[in-house]
Specification:
Number of strands of chain B: 5
Order of helices and strands of chain B: EEHHHHHEEHHHHHE
Number of helices of chain B: 10
CATH architecture of the largest domain in chain A: Sandwich
Strand content of chain A: 35-45%
Order of helices and strands of chain A: HEEEEEEEHHHHEEEEEHH
Largest sheet of chain A: 6 strands, mixed
Number of helices of chain A: 7
CATH class of the largest domain in chain A: Mainly Beta
Radius of gyration of chain B: 19 Å
Shape of chain B: globular
Largest sheet of chain B: 2 strands, antiparallel
Helix content of chain A: 25-40%
Oligomer: heterodimer
């Protein structure tokens, strides 16, 4: 972790982004363990702005934090009425859509981030979904991408939380992002952007590992690596429970 | 109490699952149906991914049927010979059904076909049973002087390979029961159910088996067909969630015991009216979903090679 942090810090310090303000970041946790009673998690993201020179004049410093789950292709289907019933007709493959995406900002996103910068860094929810290869022969391909955002927003997987990053003295910032219980496993990427006047002046990136642990991990691995034994085990457990409960119930009634 | 399901990858309330299992278990014990045709849609409804719901349900049906069939064995209401013939057809059918299912999946219309299957079969079976059992109920209320009309000895009795089924008191060809098993096996693999709701009426009306042994025999063959389906899902799709199954069956086995007791105390005609009404309600709900404009026209699926 430390090595990775240093590596990213080194990257930030490199002249890739010509800036004299950089992020020093802290996380309340860099891993989320999914246990049997996992009920969502709250990640506290905090940090400071490191600068060699005094705070520059001009527009104030704004902070945007974007937390993204692992991306995967999504097939979006649209229903139409055919012969009186509603059936799936057109479908579009959205190349990559994150399983989870939350953006926290220190102000209204439109005010603190230019559209060109959004295009470049893919920060807003709409930009985070990639549907480059969307079939051109399907009418209204954009509607399909919008549907992904709408459905996942309804499920609480995508969210934009404006004004939830607190910035003190243009130097210290903190926010907390709630992650729902229905998390997909994988590496979650937290990106922190510093903006002034809508332009990104510094960027920092780190990962949060979301993993099943304990029994969850064991069952998941077994179902993938020894599917035959897993299937047999499931059946044996089921039958044993069925027989056990049946016997217990009968004894209970006879006494 | 929230619990995270390792294969389904969702977090749900454990008591909700126990309650669902118990409710469906009572019905399972009363009517001898696995309850899958109720449980599978209910699982979709609480947010379990359909593939996981179908596979896990097969596993859960094994358990709830097992405790049910033990109760029937003690009352000697299982026709083992008939069950075995049905089972041979059933296993062949389940394997065929999985092939058909994967073919339809490739066409991308599997959801629609599954729902249509539900509506058609639940509708036909429900209506037939409802009319039949209402007639029977009316006759028994008239003083029971009119003897129940026996099925006429038609084509079922004209076929070769006759076999004597003592427990059922039948002397018929093995071809009809094997075909019934095959057909139900195909449907159970496609629809993700045990198939009792089709098997039970088919045994009563097609094979002419006495209602008393129908429930136990149906449960007996369902155990093996759903056990086979569970293994197929576990080894090809990795969608059997054992935690989900255990929670459902803890409620389910207790419910099934209660249901068996209720079922034994209720007159067979009334039992059939109730089952018919239940089947029709589920059918109506699914038909409405197809006919009414859905609130969300778009749906998400996993992309790529599926």
């Amino acid at each position: 972790m430390l090595k990775r942090l240093l590596a990213v810090l080194a990257f930030c310090a490199s002249p890739a982004l010509a800036t004299d303000e950089a992020v020093v970041l802290g996380l309340s946790q860099d891993r989320v363990a999914i246990t049997a009673n996992f009920d969502g998690s709250e990640i506290l993201i905090f940090g400071a702005v490191k600068r060699e020179a005094p705070i520059p004049d001009g527009p104030p410093l704004e902070v945007i934090v974007a937390l993204a789950g692992p991306s995967s292709p999504v097939t979006v289907r649209r229903k139409e009425r055919k012969l009186g019933i509603w059936v799936n007709t057109d479908s579009v493959l959205v190349d990559l859509a994150p399983s989870f995406y939350a953006v926290a900002t220190s102000g209204p996103l439109d005010d603190i981030l230019l559209d060109t910068e959004d295009l470049r860094y893919r920060i807003s929810i709409e930009r985070a979904i990639r549907s480059v290869g969307a079939a051109m022969n399907v009418r209204g391909a954009q509607d399909f991408a919008d549907a992904v955002v709408r459905i996942r927003e309804d499920e609480g997987l995508y969210s934009i939380r404006e004004d939830t990053v607190a910035v003190d003295e243009q130097t210290l910032f903190r926010t907390s992002i709630e992650m729902p219980a229905d998390l997909t496993e994988g590496e979650y990427t937290a990106r922190i952007f510093l903006t002034r006047g809508g332009s990104v002046i510094s960027q920092f990136e780190t990962t949060i590992d979301v993993r099943k642990v304990g029994l969850e991990r064991f069952l998941y691995n077994m179902s993938r690596q020894q599917p035959v034994w897993y299937g047999l085990m499931s059946l044996v457990i089921a039958i044993a429970a069925g027989w056990g409960a049946s016997t217990a119930f009968r004894l209970l009634r006879e006494n | 109490m929230q619990i995270y399901l390792p294969i389904a990858e969702v977090s749900v309330n454990a008591f909700l699952l126990l309650g669902l299992g118990g409710m469906v278990g009572i019905l399972s014990g009363m009517f001898g149906v696995g309850g899958g045709f109720l449980m599978t849609p209910l699982l979709f409804f609480i947010g379990i991914p359909p593939a996981v719901a179908v596979a896990t349900e097969a596993n859960q049906i094994v358990a709830s049927s097992f405790s049910g069939v033990l109760a029937h064995f003690r009352r000697k209401t299982v026709d083992l010979k008939m069950g075995t013939v049905l089972l041979i057809g059933g296993l062949t059918g389940a394997a065929l059904g999985v092939v058909i299912f994967n073919y339809l999946k490739g066409l991308g219309q599997v959801d629609l076909l599954v729902t249509l299957c539900y509506v058609v079969f639940l509708g036909v079976v429900g209506s037939l049973m409802f009319i039949e059992s209402l007639n029977a109920l009316r006759k028994s209320k008239k003083g029971g002087s009119a003897p129940p009309k026996r099925r006429q000895r038609g084509w079922v009795h004209a076929m070769p390979f006759k076999m004597r089924f003592r427990t059922s008191g039948l002397y018929i060809s093995v071809i009809p029961p094997a075909l019934v098993g095959l057909f139900v096996g195909i449907l159970s693999a496609i629809m993700g159910v045990g198939g009792g709701f089709i098997m039970v009426p088919a045994m009563i009306y097609l094979l002419g088996m006495p209602t008393k042994v129908v429930v136990g025999t149906s449960l007996f063959q369902i155990i093996f067909v759903t056990g086979f389906t569970t293994m197929l899902h576990a080894t090809t799709n990795y969608t059997v969630d054992v935690v989900l199954a255990v929670l459902l069956l803890v409620g389910g086995v207790i419910g099934a015991q209660i249901g068996t007791v209720i079922g034994a105390r209720m007159p067979a005609e009334q039992l059939r009216v109730l089952l018919a009404a239940l089947v029709l309600v589920v059918c109506g709900k699914l038909a409405l979903d197809l006919l009414l404009e859905p609130a969300e026209l778009y749906s998400l699926g996993t992309g790529g090679g599926h």
